[in-house]
C-alpha cells in the first residue's frame, strides 16, 4: 500500500487513523481475500466474479482491496464469491445451488444464455446472500468513498433507527429505482425476501427462462415504469432508438424492475405496503451525486474522463491548466460529496462506447499511476473519509404501482 501525503486534502474530508487501516502488502491482502473468515454476523461485504478473484482485472482488484483495507479492522469480512470448481469461495459453499427456492432452473442447470449471462448469474446471487447472511452486496466496479461502517452503525445496525435498507436511488425522490450494484440490509429483510420471490418467478415463467430477454413484459410487472432513455445507437446495420433501448435496459436490469414493483406494491393479503415501507425504512442516496459524479462532470464521455484522470497534477510552481483544473474539481467533488463511484460496464458500452471503467480495464495500471488525478482519487478513497454522512432522499408515500398479491397478475 502506497502513501501519498502530498495530495491536497479537500475541505469536509479528514484522514483516517492508520490504526484503522490494513496497510499490509497487496499480496497479504489478496491472501486474506482468498481465505476469508467464516460468516459470524451481518458485517459482510459480498462481491461476485464468475471466474474468481485471481482472474479479476487490476483496477477491480484495487477496488476490492480498498474495501478490505478500510473495513476489516472494523469487523467486516470481504468475500469475492465465484463459480470455480473446487474454490473455497464458490457460491455452492454459501448457498444451496440446487434449491429451486433459492435459484431458478437456468442457474441450477447452468443454462443461462445471452450476451449478459455472467452478469445475470451475479444478479441471482445477491438477494439470497443478503437474505441468509446480511451485509452489503456490491459490484466489483464500485469504488467506496464514504464511511460505510459509520452509516451502517447509525442506521441499519442501530436499534433506534427506522432504516432497514441502504442503497442508491435513480431518478430522484419521485422514483423508486434502487441500484442493484449496492444493496445493504440485515439478514431476512422483508423487502428483499419479496424481491427475491418475484425475481425467481420471472425467471421460472414458461417452464423456465434462460435469459432476461422480454422479461419486462411479464404481467407481474404491470404498472412498473420501463427504463427510459433519450439515446440512440447503431448496431448490426440498424438504429436502436430510445424506445427500444428502454426495453433493452428494462430486461438488462430486470432485478431493478422487480425491486421497483415491490417498492410500489400494496399486498394486503401478504401484509405488505411497499410505498409505506420505502418512506419509513429505506435510506436512499441520490445515485447521480452519490455514485456517478464523474459521469455528470464529463457528460458520460468515458474517453474524456479517462484523459482527465490520467493527467499529472501540476508540479510545484507550475500553472494549473484548464484540463487539470477540471480534473481537480472532479476529484475534490467525488471525495467531498459522493458516497461511492460506480465504474460502468455492460450494456452502456454498446450504447455509448468506452467508459472510464472499460478504459482502466484496457489500459492496465492507468488508474494507479502516482502523481495523477486517478491516483489522488484512489488515495483519497483509501486513506480519507468525509466528515458527514450523505443525506437520504426524503421519500413520501406514493400511489402504488400495483394492488394485490405479489405473484398474482393484476
Question: Any overview of this molecule?
Answer:
The chain is α/β, with parallel strands linked by helices. The chain has a domain at 13-288. 38% of the residues lie in helices and 14% in strands. It is built from 16 helices and 15 strands. It has helices spanning 26-34, 58-71, 105-109, 117-133, 148-154, 190-204, 242-252, 254-263, 274-281, 287-291, 293-297, 302-310, 322-337, 347-352, 356-362, 373-383, and strands spanning 13-15, 44-48, 77-81, 135-138, 142-144, 165-169, 178-185, 233-235, 238-240, 265-267, 272-273, 282-286, 340-342, 384-386, 402-403. The strands form 5 sheets. It has a 6-stranded mixed beta sheet, with helices on both faces. A 3-stranded mixed beta sheet has the order 11-10-15. Strand 8 and strand 9 form a beta hairpin. Helix 4 (117-133) runs antiparallel to helix 6 (190-204).
Amino acid at each position: 500500500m502506497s502513501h501519498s501525503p502530498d495530495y491536497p486534502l479537500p475541505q469536509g474530508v479528514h484522514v483516517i487513523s492508520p490504526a484503522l487501516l490494513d496497510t499490509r502488502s497487496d499480496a497479504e491482502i489478496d491472501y486474506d481475500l482468498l481465505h476469508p473468515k467464516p460468516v459470524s454476523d451481518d458485517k459482510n461485504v459480498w462481491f461476485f466474479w464468475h471466474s474468481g478473484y485471481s482472474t479479476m482485472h487490476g483496477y477491480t482488484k484495487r477496488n476490492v482491496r480498498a474495501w478490505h483495507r478500510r473495513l476489516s479492522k472494523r469487523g467486516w469480512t470481504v468475500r469475492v464469491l465465484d463459480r470455480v470448481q473446487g474454490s473455497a469461495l464458490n457460491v455452492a459453499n454459501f448457498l444451496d445451488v440446487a434449491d429451486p427456492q433459492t435459484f431458478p432452473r437456468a442457474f441450477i442447470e447452468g443454462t443461462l444464455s445471452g450476451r449478459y449471462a455472467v452478469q445475470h448469474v451475479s444478479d441471482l446471487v445477491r438477494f439470497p446472500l443478503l437474505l441468509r447472511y446480511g451485509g452489503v452486496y456490491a459490484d466489483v466496479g464500485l469504488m467506496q468513498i464514504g464511511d460505510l461502517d459509520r452509516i451502517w452503525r447509525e442506521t441499519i445496525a442501530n436499534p433506534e433507527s427506522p432504516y432497514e435498507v441502504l442503497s442508491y436511488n435513480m431518478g430522484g425522490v419521485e422514483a423508486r429505482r434502487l441500484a442493484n450494484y449496492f444493496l445493504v440490509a440485515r439478514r431476512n429483510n422483508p423487502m428483499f425476501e419479496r424481491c427475491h420471490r418475484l425475481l425467481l418467478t420471472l425467471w421460472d415463467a414458461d417452464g423456465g427462462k434462460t435469459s432476461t430477454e422480454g422479461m419486462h413484459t411479464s404481467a407481474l410487472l404491470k404498472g412498473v415504469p420501463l427504463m427510459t432513455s433519450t439515446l440512440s445507437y447503431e448496431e448490426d446495420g440498424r438504429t436502436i432508438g430510445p424506445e427500444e433501448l428502454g426495453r433493452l435496459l428494462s430486461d438488462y436490469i430486470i432485478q431493478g424492475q422487480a425491486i421497483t414493483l415491490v417498492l410500489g406494491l400494496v399486498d394486503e393479503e401478504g401484509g405488505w405496503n411497499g410505498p409505506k415501507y420505502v418512506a419509513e425504512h429505506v435510506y436512499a442516496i441520490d445515485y447521480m451525486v452519490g455514485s456517478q459524479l464523474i459521469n455528470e462532470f464529463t457528460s458520460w464521455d468515458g474517453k474524456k474522463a479517462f484523459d482527465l484522470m490520467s493527467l499529472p497534477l501540476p508540479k510545484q510552481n507550475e500553472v494549473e491548466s484548464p484540463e487539470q483544473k477540471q480534473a481537480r474539481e472532479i476529484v475534490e467533488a467525488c471525495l467531498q460529496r459522493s458516497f461511492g463511484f460506480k465504474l460502468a460496464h455492460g450494456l452502456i458500452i454498446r450504447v455509448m462506447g468506452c467508459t472510464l471503467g472499460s478504459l482502466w480495464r484496457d489500459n492496465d495500471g492507468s488508474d494507479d499511476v502516482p502523481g495523477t488525478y486517478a491516483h489522488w482519487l484512489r488515495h483519497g478513497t483509501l486513506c480519507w473519509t468525509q466528515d458527514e454522512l450523505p443525506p437520504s432522499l426524503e421519500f413520501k408515500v406514493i400511489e402504488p404501482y400495483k394492488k394485490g398479491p405479489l405473484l398474482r397478475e393484476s
